[in-house]
Design brief:
heterodimer; A: about 500 residues; Aspartate Aminotransferase, domain 1; seven-stranded mixed beta sheet; 12 strands; B: about 450 residues; alpha/beta; Aspartate Aminotransferase, domain 2; 2 domains; four-stranded antiparallel beta sheet; 17 strands
Chain lengths: ~500, ~450
């Protein structure tokens, strides 16, 4: 393939430190207005630094240009289709940004006395009630900062629950399809992870589960629908097995977008659920956060929830209710972080829930499932159907997993090559090489905010890449060509890490 | 679309959900609303909060009412930074990855440590994460923690430690700073890490190097929580022997947001690089030799290493870290130092001004940068309520909330937004409230307080 360097490729990367020139600056600070003694009269010299940190010296117009230039070297959801499995890359309504930026939210100090933060606490309480209804569990803590933080909360709650009954259990079960955060959390929470196999339908292998359930099992962590995008039909039986053995059932809510208003984790028997507000509830992902990972729990877990907890106290004699932070929770596992959680995220997600309402949330899940099944059907036709068969051939929920094994065998094209070639077609690739039990996996989650036209265009791009690879597989193997940089040496970055600018 | 799938209705697709598990009714939530209605509803809630726009805010305690320059909003609201996922496909994520690399460089400069990650959730959970790192690095399970460390950090570390199977020992304060003798006694050969904070929760600058000696002698890691906004003038933790320097990043470019989202920064020595939590961007080349950036050292992380990962964190706070980087670039090398000096001088003025008020005395006389503690000769919560209601001033953080031994304590924070006139107004208001003679005429007003002096 003939290659012409694009303008962006020609422009080699320069950091803001490399643009720095002594004496340039942007900030103008206020006058001191107070006496200005030498600093070492205020603070002993040995506690002061000799030289200020070597931050860049650069004027405002150049800072703007620098970061605008960097922004153009990013692909983002507002630019194109982003079917990254398990990440729920749905549209981020701008209204949510607007309401989060209102000074009453954005400039509210977290230590403000509850009597002077009634709007914020009421909003948190309303969001708690909404999530409780969506999850089918009575109590919610908004404190965890992301899904993984919610998982850690869940296992610490599990530990406190067992300890309260005088039990110390050692093991946590998780399917081999689970997100990497699950086993990593198990270790952080001081448990040993035990893997459970997957059956030929893509669900939990029941015989394996029965073998592994015993009195040492503290918890089973499950995603349902799971990372294959399949609803585990045996969930009721799984719940009974775990509960009879005295364990708790933890729901990884990464895939909640499939079932909102249709099926609730609490009704499935789960004790603890985390919700990724940055997935199902439209908080923009920010290139890697911020998010928030509230947890919903059953009655028996409630006493152990993190503190403080937002509560509504009824007014006396029919007066106005008072929203408060309840610190008096003797059985609580304690804090998981500072203050009350990622409030700005709560504002956005509550605005989203208000916008969609009960019917809109259910419709969002319906459309997400419809879009996934349609794209799966489109990809079952033509070349994709042969080279990229679906890993488990049944209706999926909001996402599905393809295997690139035949493509690799027959065309010599790895899943990674296909993903990189998709970049040249203007698509973000699906999640690759996950879940681990599928060879050359591609995990596709289109979400409800994509049109049929986008789904068709994606399917056509896959078809085109496979057609092209039949003639010349080298094209995809060397891809991408049009991106700001081409394939990068990730091994070098880990073997000899350069992780800051030498100055 | 249904025909392509081969089903008659969307409901058919939900048949894989066993019938008894289908909700079978609408969610008990209000019906959807128009954009205008949602805006009004949220604006009404926001209107019931006393924010720093309408109240002069002297509250700190870990989060501060700094001025965030307009350029930060302009850049962080760009779709290209706002809406992508974590940069798993580096070829189309160079902007975000390079910003992380620049951020890491800045944090490394601030803390005086060579290794920085791209950010964690926020301050207190970063402290707990350092505990996990220390257990891995030392094989020990005992933490010695100064009572000067933010109470939320201490409590978060305690929460996590139940999972780590670690023991926590707290060391008290003497004259506003960590009791050096008690610290030396508490640290032993089983100690995994010593946790300090400087400036500590009472605002006092700690002598980290002297206190850290006990950690060094016993082979424990020295973990120092810092307020990044003070690091333009304070000696960096890395120069004082810290193995890990971390903290709440909110003062850099992030709004108060009632407590989040912000970010935690986390820096360490070279020896600890492969034990770091969180994402780390690294420099590399593409196949044509062009400079580029990728997520480096991913073999530490949960998506690769699963149960053997150095941490479980996945989604962190990339956009908040970008906000910090833009703010730091805007301040620049000189501006950042000047801001530190400005804070120290205005704080010195405020401290002196308040100490001169009848019924107010200093809680400690240790050096401070931007926050200090006083004792009030009147019930603190009552004084605060009065000053807020009558003068529109949030006078500070009542220490009794977290320190029973300082029931009469008030923590006062200064930012570049707090003018001399506002400081004078605070002094007057406190004096009046304490003496119980608040001038009800002068406050006729109002929440608009810029001219309260």
């Amino acid at each position: 393939m003939s290659m012409t360097e694009t303008p962006m490729q020609r422009e080699s990367a320069q950091t803001i430190y490399e643009k720095s020139k002594p004496g340039r600056r942007a900030a103008v600070l206020p006058e001191a207005e107070v006496p200005e003694p030498p600093l070492d009269e205020l603070i002993p010299a040995r506690l002061l630094r000799a030289e200020p940190p070597r931050l860049p010296e650069i004027a405002e117009p150049e800072i703007v240009r620098h970061y605008n230039r960097l922004s153009r070297r990013n692909f983002d959801l507002d630019t194109g289709f982003y079917p990254l499995g398990s990440c729920t890359m749905k549209h981020n309504p701008r209204l949510n940004e607007r309401v989060a930026a209102l000074p009453g939210h954005a400039r509210l100090h977290p230590a403000q006395d509850p009597s002077r933060a009634q709007g914020a606490l009421e909003l948190m309480w309303l969001l708690q009630r909404s999530l409780a209804e969506i999850c089918g569990l009575p109590h919610v803590s908004l404190q965890p900062s992301a899904g993984s933080h919610g998982e850690l909360a869940g296992l610490l709650l599990t530990r406190a629950f067992h300890a309260d009954r005088g039990e110390e259990r050692t093991k946590v079960l998780a399917p081999d399809t689970s997100h990497g955060t699950n086993p990593a959390t198990v270790t952080m929470a001081g448990y040993e992870v035990v893997k459970v196999a997957t059956n030929e339908r893509g669900g939990v292998e029941m015989d394996d589960l029965r073998d592994k359930v015993d009195g040492d099992v503290a918890c089973l962590m499950l995603t349902n629908p799971n990372t294959l995008g399949l609803f585990d039909e045996n969930i009721a039986e799984i719940a009974t097995l775990i509960h009879e053995a005295g364990g708790t059932l933890y729901y990884d809510g990464a895939n909640l977008n499939a079932v909102m208003g249709h099926s609730r984790p609490g009704d499935m028997g789960f004790d603890i659920v985390h919700v990724n507000l940055h997935k199902s509830f439209s908080q923009p992902h920010g290139g890697g956060g911020p998010g928030a990972g509230p947890i919903a729990v059953s009655e028996r877990i409630e006493p152990f929830l993190p503190r403080p907890q937002v509560v509504r106290r009824e007014g006396e004699n029919g007066g106005e209710p008072f929203f408060d932070l309840d610190h008096d929770r003797p059985k609580s596992i304690g804090r998981l972080r500072g203050f009350q959680g990622n409030f700005g995220v709560f504002v956005r997600s509550y605005a989203y829930i208000l916008s969609l309402g009960a019917d809109g949330l259910a419709e969002a899940s319906e459309t997400a499932v419809l879009n996934a099944n349609y794209l799966k059907a489109r990809l079952a036709q033509g070349r994709a159907g042969e080279r990229l068969p679906v890993a488990f051939d049944r209706h999926c929920m909001h996402e599905f997993v393809l295997s690139g094994k035949p493509m690799k065998r027959e065309l010599g094209l790895a899943t990674l090559d296909l993903a990189k070639r998709l970049l040249d077609f203007g698509f973000h690739p699906p999640t690759v090489y996950f879940p681990l039990l599928v060879d050359e996996a591609l995990m596709v989650e289109p979400t409800e905010t994509e049109t049929k036209e986008s789904l068709d265009a994606f399917a056509e791009a896959i078809e085109q890449i496979l057609t092209e690879a039949e003639k010349d597989p080298e094209i995809a193997k060397q891809a991408p060509y049009t991106t700001p940089v081409r394939r990068l040496d990730e091994v070098k970055a880990t073997r000899k890490p350069v992780i800051r600018q030498p100055l | 679309m249904l025909a392509a799938i081969g089903v008659g209705s969307v409901a058919d697709l939900f048949e894989q959900v066993p019938e008894p598990l289908r909700l079978g009714r609408p969610l008990e939530l209000p019906a959807g609303m128009s954009e205008a209605e949602v805006y009004e509803r949220l604006a009404a809630l926001a209107g019931r909060n006393a924010d720093a726009e309408e109240e002069v805010c002297f509250v700190g305690a870990g989060m501060y009412d700094h001025y965030v320059p307009a350029i930060v909003d302009a850049i962080t609201q760009r779709s290209e930074f706002l809406t992508p996922y974590t940069p798993y496909q580096p070829e189309i994520s160079q902007g975000g990855l390079q910003a992380m690399f620049e951020f890491q460089t800045a944090m490394s400069e601030l803390t005086g440590l060579p290794v920085s990650n791209a950010g964690l959730y926020e301050g207190p959970s970063s402290v707990a994460s350092a505990g996990y790192l220390a257990i891995g690095a030392t094989g020990r399970r005992r933490f010695v923690v100064s009572r000067g460390v933010h109470p939320h950090s201490r409590e978060t570390l305690a929460t996590y430690s139940v999972g780590f199977g670690a023991e926590l020992v707290e060391v008290g304060l003497e004259g506003g700073v960590t009791d050096a003798a008690a610290l030396a006694d508490a640290v032993d050969g089983d100690t995994a890490a010593v946790f300090l904070q400087s400036p500590n929760f009472l605002g006092a600058v700690e002598d980290v190097e002297a206190l850290g000696a006990a950690a060094k002698e016993n082979g424990a890691l020295l973990v120092v929580a810092a307020d990044p906004m003070t690091l333009g003038i304070l000696r960096p933790p890395g120069e004082q022997g810290a193995d890990v320097a971390l903290g709440e990043g909110q003062p850099l470019g992030n709004r108060l947001d009632f407590g989040g989202p912000s970010f935690g920064f986390f820096c360490a020595t070279e020896e600890l690089i492969r034990r770091m939590p969180g994402r780390i961007a690294g420099e590399t080349d593409d196949v044509d030799g062009r400079r580029g950036f990728v997520l480096a050292l991913q073999t530490r992380e949960q998506h690769i290493r699963r149960e053997k990962a150095t941490h479980n964190i996945c989604t962190a706070q990339a956009l908040n870290a970008l906000a910090a980087m833009v703010h730091l670039a805007w301040l620049g090398r000189e501006g950042f130092r000047e801001l530190g000096e400005l804070l120290a001088r205005r704080t010195a003025y405020a401290r002196e001004r308040l100490a001169a008020v009848e019924g107010v005395e200093l809680l400690h006389e240790a050096p401070v940068v931007r926050e200090f503690a006083v004792r009030l000769d009147a019930p603190v919560e009552r004084v605060l309520a009065k000053v807020a209601a009558e003068r529109g001033i949030a006078a500070g953080y009542p220490l009794g909330r977290e320190y029973p031994e300082h029931e009469d304590g008030l923590l006062v924070a200064i930012t570049e937004r707090r003018t001399r006139a506002q400081i004078d107004a605070l002094a007057d208001a406190l004096g009046a409230a304490i003496s119980g003679s608040v001038d009800l005429v002068a406050n006729g007003a109002t929440k608009s307080t810029e001219g309260v002096a």
